[in-house]
Amino acid sequence: MRSNIYFFHDIGATFILLLILFSGCASSGVPGTVKIAVISDVHFLDRRLAEEGDALLAYEQATGRNITDLHAVLDAVLDDLLGEAPDLLLVTGDITSHGERLSHEGFIEKLRPLQDRGTRILVIPGNHDINIPDAKAYRGDRAVPTETVSKEDFAELYAPFGYSDALRRDGASLSYLAGIGESVWLLCFDTNRYAEHTTTSVTGGRILPETMDWALNILAEARDKGITVLGMMHHGLVEHLPYQATFFPRYLVDEWEGCAGLLADAGLKVVFTGHFHASDITAYTSSAGNVIYDVETASLAQYPFGYRVMELGDAGLSVDTRFVESVPHCSGLAAAYRERLEAVTRRVATARLRGLDIPVPEEAFAALADVIVNLNLLHVRGDEKPDQAMTEAIRLFADRMGDEADPESFPFDFPPEDNRVVIPLR
């Protein structure tokens, strides 16, 4: 019989493999600090594109996104941020449902009140935002093509949100450099492959060689001037799960380890990311001993509806994570969408399990599906630790496999903490 450690190493790979299958400034109020908010993966669909009917219903059932609910979630977050008055709001891509021009325009209007109050807003595109061949509007019983945006259109639309006052612009992509006061810069990376779109969007991402050279030159200059540099991009720069690079390659930039090492050694301290729809923070140490943190923010279009409010100061970056639990018309929003995510995960996991050639006896399929479902629900919320449901699912699965289980032998989460933590920058 295999030891518990080896047993959980093997089934851990299976768990992680299967998860992908569903899957101008205001004042912060504290002298010397900058208050920074982050939202990601809003997947905004403008109401002008969403007429009631069978087509919209089919879209909502396929995506698990009720348009009324998601507009209310975004409104709740923006209302909270109006009260917080952050100096800076970062939007790390997948702004729109599928690149619709009207959705970009509608999202911009949603941001106006915050911008008018003095919050500076910086955006980058995600894989759902530019040159989407199958952008759709939902008209009664039909889903019909609608206008998308080009790379040039995106920069023009979001000129007041980073592009017009950039310190530098990358000639090879929509990457740019923003100044945050005199001693902090923000490198905004465009990691998307919209030039490769043919019939639909490309999920995977990369940092172009020209863009990497451009960024490294900026980081060298910053080091000479004593400037702290943070970054943001849509795709993950660092692994957030065991085996993610193997089983989730489309959610990391290509050659992530080399990219993370180069940027860490050049002095990049923190990068804000999205794309994976989870609330997670992971630290990566280069071979030279330099550390970079990937702060991944959850989606506002899916449970757990997370966003970040942070303080950047001399002590480092203090991260606080908030979750939308309810909206005016739905007091049980989080619970309802958690159940929806659980049901979708279970349905897809069960179907895919039967299509995979893995050595799991028939009687263990339901137990394995339970483990996958619980692991996914824990990961998207962050700070995942085996709760009673997860512990029981693991033990039941191990029992069906004829082994004894110790949940502590499986690495559920990479350090540091995910939702409330202080990240050192010096």
What does this structure look like?
There is one protein chain. The chain is α/β, with parallel strands linked by helices and 426 residues long. The chain has one domain (33-328, 416-423): 4-Layer Sandwich (Purple Acid Phosphatase, chain A, domain 2), CATH 3.60.21. Helices cover 36% and strands 19% of the residues. The strands form three sheets. It has a seven-stranded mixed beta sheet. The protein has a six-stranded mixed beta sheet with strand order 3-2-1-13-14-15, with helices on one face. Helix 1 (4-19) packs across helix 10 (365-381) and helix 9 packs across helix 10.
Helices and strands, with pairings:
Blueprint (H helix, E strand, L loop, with lengths): L3 H16 L14 E6 L14 H10 L3 H18 L3 E5 L8 H16 L3 E5 L11 E4 L2 E4 L5 H7 L10 E2 L6 E5 L3 E5 L20 H17 L2 E5 L11 H4 L8 H11 L1 E6 L6 E6 L5 E6 L9 E8 L2 E8 L9 H23 L9 H17 L6 H13 L19 E4 L3
